UniProtKB/TrEMBL annotation:
The keyword Transmembrane helix applies. It comes from Strix occidentalis caurina (northern spotted owl). The keyword Oxidoreductase does not apply. It holds the Pfam family V-set. SMART domains: IG (SM00409), IGv (SM00406). One of its GO terms (molecular function) is cell-cell adhesion mediator activity. Residues 16-93 form the Ig-like domain. This is Ig-like domain-containing protein. GO terms for cellular component: axon; cell surface; membrane; neuronal cell body. It is a single-pass type I membrane protein. It comes from the Eukaryota. GO terms for biological process: heterotypic cell-cell adhesion; negative regulation of macrophage activation; negative regulation of neuroinflammatory response; regulation of immune response. The lineage of its organism: Eukaryota, Metazoa, Chordata, Craniata, Vertebrata. InterPro entries: CD200_Ig_V_dom (IPR033321), Ig-like_dom (IPR007110), Ig-like_dom_sf (IPR036179), Ig-like_fold (IPR013783), Ig_sub (IPR003599), Ig_V-set (IPR013106), OX2G-like (IPR047164).
Length: 143
């Protein structure tokens, strides 16, 4: 095959960070168009397409959340700004090469949520009464 996807493993990021996914052909080819897709269970959704003839098109809902940071036709990168949990998943880069057809590379992104931790105290107390009563202690959490 005449392609390689970088990185070759799952890339991780925390929510709110910027992350870049890259893909490149290992040999120069006559690339007409590069397309990035996000893989889903049933289909692949185009998120960005670039060609020298037609320019760059970033599809909704990614228009205000990502950019194509390398517009070379043999090497491409996309950068997500302010990553969200729903950016997690696998992505495919497609190089449409004349006259050979398309070559693809795959990479995955795992976006980890931020964990909010807080120390909490537990109070346990036995209460005996006659007749039997119900005692409930509550405290509102303040973040």
């Amino acid at each position: 095959m005449a392609w390689r996807a970088l990185p070759l493993c799952i890339q991780s990021s925390s929510t709110g960070n910027n992350v870049t996914l890259s893909c490149a052909l290992t040999e120069p080819k006559d690339v007409l168009q590069v397309t990035w897709q996000k893989d889903s269970d049933k289909s692949q959704n185009n998120i960005a397409t670039y060609s020298t003839a037609m320019g760059l098109k970033i599809h909704e809902p990614y228009q205000d959340r990502m950019s194509v940071t390398s517009l070379a036709l043999n090497e491409t990168s996309i950068t997500f700004w302010d990553t969200r949990m729903d950016d997690s998943g696998c992505y495919t880069c497609l190089f449409n090469v004349f006259p050979l057809g398309s070559f693809s590379g795959h990479t995955c992104l795992s976006v980890l949520g931020k964990v909010l931790c807080r120390n909490m105290s537990l109070v346990e107390k036995e209460v005996f009464s006659h007749p039997q009563h119900f005692l409930e202690w509550t405290q509102e959490l303040q973040w």
